[in-house]
Amino acid sequence: MSSSKLLKGSLATIVLRLLEEQEKMYGYEITQKVKQLTAGEFKLTEGALYPTLHKLEAEGYLTTETQQVDGRVRKYYSLTKEGNAEAKAKVSELEDFLVNLQKVLNPKLGLG
Amino acid sequence: MSSSKLLKGSLATIVLRLLEEQEKMYGYEITQKVKQLTAGEFKLTEGALYPTLHKLEAEGYLTTETQQVDGRVRKYYSLTKEGNAEAKAKVSELEDFLVNLQKVLNPKLGLG
DNA sequence: CAAGTATACCTAATTTTCTTATGTATAAGA
DNA sequence: TCTTATACATAAGAAAATTAGGTATACTTG
């Protein structure tokens, strides 16, 4: 993901989370959705996104379905049953991480 | 940082932030401080921390001062003037990132 | 007093996960 | 016709960790 090269490691979680919200999405759609949600501040790069999707599929968390729309191919991804569980796990893990990160960045709040 | 290999890229920010709070810290002290602040959930690995400290020093953001305490050597790090500015910048950048990440993880809140 | 744990520094090899660059192809708009 | 948008993909390189190893001193415990 571009726009600050932060948070390496959260891309798979983001993908899984979006697919919890929306049953089926294709790669390009995911890039646009993230851009929209963050008012253009996150720009997923294709070089990061596609390998991540392929990896999640290989791990059994996503299934694909190809459709032809307006003469262009779209590859739709959906969560498998395992993917659903993984989504919950990863999101929860990330949220725990963020809570702890806040404790480090803002020590006063956590100890007051 | 261990404990979930998330957030690659936030370690330098954490170090700079801690040195804003506390004038001088040495490496081992930083690992213990982070452990304490997160109730043991973040464990900085030395293989990540020391290279990060060296890099920040090489970039001119930290200065060092070695002390002998109880027969052991401690290398204290402090922010330079540039380091102080960099700390503010990095923390601000990370916080912006976290706000956007929340928008992606929790779309409902951001759009409601 | 020997052994293990804690303190305190360090580096190297490897892995993970990005960015950057490139390639293919179709559709729409200027 | 040329550029932008849509839509997929891979490969080379960089960044930033993990894992594993190394050195050394001090304290605790059996």
TrEMBL record, chains A, B:
Q: Where is the Transcription regulator PadR N-terminal domain?
A: 15-88
Q: Which InterPro entries match?
A: Metal_resp_DNA-bind_regulator, Tscrpt_reg_PadR_N, WH-like_DNA-bd_sf, WH_DNA-bd_sf
A Pfam family (short name) is PadR
Where along the sequence do coiled-coil regions lie? none
SUPFAM superfamilies in UniProt: Winged helix' DNA-binding domain (SSF46785)
The protein's name in its UniProt record: PadR family transcriptional regulator
UniProt source species: Roseivirga spongicola
